[in-house]
């Protein structure tokens, strides 16, 4: 009887059901943390940083947040060998429309970022997210992180003033995979500023600025290497696939593959590779301090609206590009090209 009692006590201690933010700190001692129907107070982070190795975090029911103008993040998860799981019917409802003013992070109301990941040997799966205020997943200094089946729906931002609602921002990270996810937003679906061994596969991006490498340059880490963007769709977006490097900066973009990418109703440019970013916008001639080498683009197909350009290349010091099966059409805007490596054509 005593042994059975001890087993019950141990089992209870290894799992925690959290219904309000006051219970969270004590719950971090548990191996299984279930977050259920929590309203996070205004200006407070749902803080799941420094979790014990092997912890499983479940999101269940609806998570909401009080309103305050602050930098966030609304959620942070950190640790090693952590599993973040969305239970059936889960919803992280940020109600970002309370902050939206068409300015995003460029002014107006101060908007909290959504989710900071500080994870190693970990996974995030099955989260349903609605209406982030600005900036989605910040994947910074992570290693061996698998992200899958994320439903990030900010469709209402198109009519209610959403801006800078990035899907996934990756920096200074390695061995990151993002697969089988849906992103409907008003900025980059994926933006990789630095990192190595990154896979983006089987994803659908709607309404934003497309899939981006960069901008690269001007940070502590200015290397993007071994990235594979495959079997994905970009729909009703400003750009399809894009690489942008900072004018006058140093670094490297190398061994990048875009393969089996479907574009639909792209407004500005289907494929854009440019080396003249400055002050968040392209200016003047490209510079070669961040060379783009080993770029493979294969089987990228679809349509650009007639006011846009199918392909735009404006680079310096680029080499070893292999492009095949490029079938991007419909754009009637003619743009001067510069720096296209010899033998590369579409």
TrEMBL record:
PROSITE patterns: POLYGALACTURONASE. One of its GO terms (biological process) is cell wall organization. The keyword Lipoprotein does not apply. GO terms for cellular component: extracellular region. The keyword Repeat applies. SMART domains: PbH1. Gene3D superfamilies: Single-stranded right-handed beta-helix, Pectin lyase-like. The active site is at residue 209. GO terms for molecular function: polygalacturonase activity. Keywords: Cell wall biogenesis/degradation, Disulfide bond, Glycosidase, Hydrolase, Repeat, Signal. It catalyses: (1,4-alpha-D-galacturonosyl)n+m + H2O = (1,4-alpha-D-galacturonosyl)n + (1,4-alpha-D-galacturonosyl)m. Pfam families: Glyco_hydro_28 (PF00295). Its EC number is 3.2.1.15. Belongs to the glycosyl hydrolase 28 family. PANTHER family: POLYGALACTURONASE. This is endo-polygalacturonase. It comes from Apolygus lucorum (Small green plant bug). The gene is PG12.
